Amino acid sequence: MSLVFDSSFAPHYGEAVEIAPDIKRITVNNPSPFTFFGTNSYLIGRDTLALIDPGPLDEAHHATLLHAIAGRPVSHIFVSHTHRDHSPLATVLKDELGATLVAEGPHRPARPLHTGEINLLDASGDYDFVPDIAAADNSVIAGDGWALRTIHTPGHTANHVVFGLEGTDILFSADHVMAWATSIVAPPDGSMSDYMASLDRLLERHDRVYLPGHGGAVTKPKTFVRGLKAHRKMRERAVLERVKLGDRTIAAMVKVIYRETDPRLHGAAGLSVLAHLEDLVARGKVHTEGNASIDGVYWAG
What we know:
alpha/beta, Metallo-beta-lactamase, Chain A, Arc Repressor Mutant, subunit A, five-stranded mixed beta sheet, 6 helices, 14 strands, elongated
């Protein structure tokens, strides 16, 4: 199944854009190869609001959010995951607005670090974030005219969740599913086996539109998620084929598999290959000495 990305998106920095009744999107001016045009925050409600993913510590975005809130009470701040482009402003706004922080839990890796391993993603994690409510899977928190269901979707991070707006066909898919690109799955923060299982969870739902953490809406989510699954399986086959052809290192595999990818993303691509290799090693299809690692040597089983 083919996967068609949609990179058409107007960020409207400094503005709150109404994208559905009582839903406004505010995009942070923090573009990068990893964030696309920037991180999307969402305001939900009319009188008493909910805020999803306030974003990084950015003064201009902070001011734009407060302008859009316009003095109305914000009862809850929901955080999809604790990467620094999504969560740090949540703690600041909690103190300013008296809101309750809701998330799956604090930042943590998907697995314990191996002996001698360094977490290359430490700088991206918001280790200061602590939610007031650790939302259980499939739990619902209701506010003034809205209710959000938390669905645990580990993979991009161990604590990643998405939020379904009850009574609608809208899902806030954060970094798990985005229209413009695939999600980065990078150990030890992320896990490929978890990510694939989380895609299956979304296929069990009947949402008609996803509003992601970066870029524009996913308008045919079931087709797109099936495409993501097929894409990941294709990448897995490519990794396995490179190993069978004699590539022993991740660097050698990235050079071939991601030859058309922006070189600035090759570091992340290497971690994505590691995520596939962790899964392949666990399933006995690839072998390595000890645990799969970024600088490991691999051979076919």
